[in-house]
Amino acid sequence: MNNPKMILVKHTAEFARQAADIFADTLRKKPDCLLGLATGTTPLPLYRELIARYRRGELDFSRARTANLDEYLGLAPNDVQSYSHFMNENLFDHINIKRENILLLNGMAKNAEAECRRYENTIHDWGGVDLQLLGIGQNGHIGFNEPADAFILQTHLIKLAEDTRRANAKLFKALHEVPTQALTLGCGTIFAARKILLLAAGQNKAEILARAFYGTVTPQVPASLLQLHPDVTIIADEQAGEEIRKHLLLEDRAM
Ligand code: PGA
Q1: What is the pLDDT of residue 250?
Q2: What are phi and psi of 63, to 5 degrees?
Q3: In what order do the strands lie in the sheet with 65-68?
Q4: pLDDT for position 2
Q5: Dist. CA 110 → ligand 1 center (Å)
Q6: Is the Cβ–Cβ distance between 77 and 107 less than 8 Å?
Q7: Disulfide engineering: 130 pairs with which of 33, 63, 72, 207, CB 3.0-4.6 Å?
Q8: Which residues contact 43 (CB under 8 A, 6 or more apart)?
Q9: 5-254: which CATH topology?
Q10: Chain mean pLDDT for the chain
């Protein structure tokens, strides 16, 4: 079992700064790195910080590549609810990344299986993910790998859990508009990343974060697989870190 590096922060600015420092470090060491990116509300402060640093001339994405974690099935890249659109709006349109270096899953692919294979092959051809950014779902999902009886290793089509659809409805007008299926990077491909950065913010992530990193490794909590990864950093805000803090205190006392 490896110990993830836990960074518990008080303020959103610190949350964004710490996460951006890890991106900056990866880009400095390897300007043509492959960055695995995530959507959702959690990474938004990080993306704003990366844009600010790029504008100040501190970051250069001209040789970097990116691959996103997932995409809703049935949404076109220009659909405002698609993750392609989210990434353009919140990051890609504001930095000097080359379009040909951006890898996104096509939610309109006629053959989902072939699309998943294309994705896996491209990540492989690009040398694998150097830094994988992750959020965590309240049910412990990473990407859209929902709780299941086994870890699905490769990029695949998945039926979204109802609690995931309800959680994600915050970005839609109504629950019925949230797609029921998605394409997602598999747990194995996520695990193959050289470095993993998991971000968690808000009270509703406190319990699952502790369960994922202090509980049993099980596909019922997909993020728990990361306990076995040699290089994981977790950045949690005050609310999300609440339960983790209790475990850290116990560990301190035991030493
Ligand atoms: P959130 O989503 O950042 O919107 O909470 C995280 C996730 O579901 O992985």
Answers
A1: 84
A2: -110, -5
A3: 5-8, 232-236, 195-200, 131-134, 34-37, 65-68, 102-103
A4: 67
A5: 27
A6: yes
A7: 33
A8: 19, 37, 133, 135, 199
A9: Rossmann fold (3.40.50)
A10: 96
Sequence-separated (6 or more) residues with CB below 8 Å from residue 167: 137, 138
From 37, 41, 184, 197, mutation site for ligand 1 pocket: most ligand atoms within 8 A of C-beta: 41
Mutate to test the pocket of ligand 1, among 133, 136, 234, 235 (most ligand atoms within 8 A of CB): 136
Atom of ligand 1 at shortest range from CA of 42? 3
pLDDT tens digit string along 32-71?
999 999 999 999 999 999 999 999 999 999 999 999 999 9
Query: Taking 70 as the threshold, does the pLDDT of residue 114 lie above it?
Result: yes
% of residues, the chain, pLDDT over 90: 95
Phi, psi of 138 (to 5 degrees): -60, -20
The yes-or-no verdict on residue 1 having pLDDT over 80 is no
> Is the separation of the CB atoms in 184 and 143 below 8 Å?
yes
Ligand 1 site, residue 41, Cβ cutoff 6 A: yes
Establish whether residue 40 lines the binding site of ligand 1, counting it when its CB lies within 6 angstroms of any ligand atom.
yes
Residue nearest to atom 1 of ligand 1 (CA): 40
The set of catalytic residues is 70, 139, 141, 146
